[in-house]
Design goal:
This protein is mainly alpha-helical. The chain folds into 2 domains: 42 residues; 122 residues, no CATH class. Helix 4 runs antiparallel to helix 5 and helix 5 packs across helix 7.
Length: 175
Amino acid sequence: MQDITYYTKLILSPEVQTLIDPYRNVFILISIFFIAISLFLIFQEKYFIADTRRRILDFFSDPRKYEKPRKFVALWNKVNNFYKKEDYKNMVIEADNLILQILKRFGYVGDNSCAIIDGYGVTEGGFPNMENVKRISELSKSIRNGIDIELGKEEMTKIYDLSRDTLIKIGILDK
């Protein structure tokens, strides 16, 4: 018992504390550095991909909990009206806007649909008709940049049908 108190007094003595103090401060700074790096890497993980996947699966599994937002249906009606009027440029822009809003609703963050899909590594299982979504995003970007693109009726019908199919698979539109 006496040995323990002797060593305790020795460790807590000012002479030993003076020797330990610089090392203790260095180890505290190293610990703070690794904690900061860990937090940075966690936030760089695309805003917790697992959480966004959970939200998507919740959306698909319980449609009563997540009712069809009127905003998405209204945007689809705009796309539909532009398609009927054969105003394909506005149809593509609105379809891209609609898909971007849906992806944001799923919890993704980004400026356009293509960047979100590529940045998050979204797969066909996570969001249907990925190639169509990328094509719409590319066309929309070109149209907004003023590049003159020839939009044929056959291609626009295909894009319209695949967009409609995407919305049906997600559960926003009824068959």
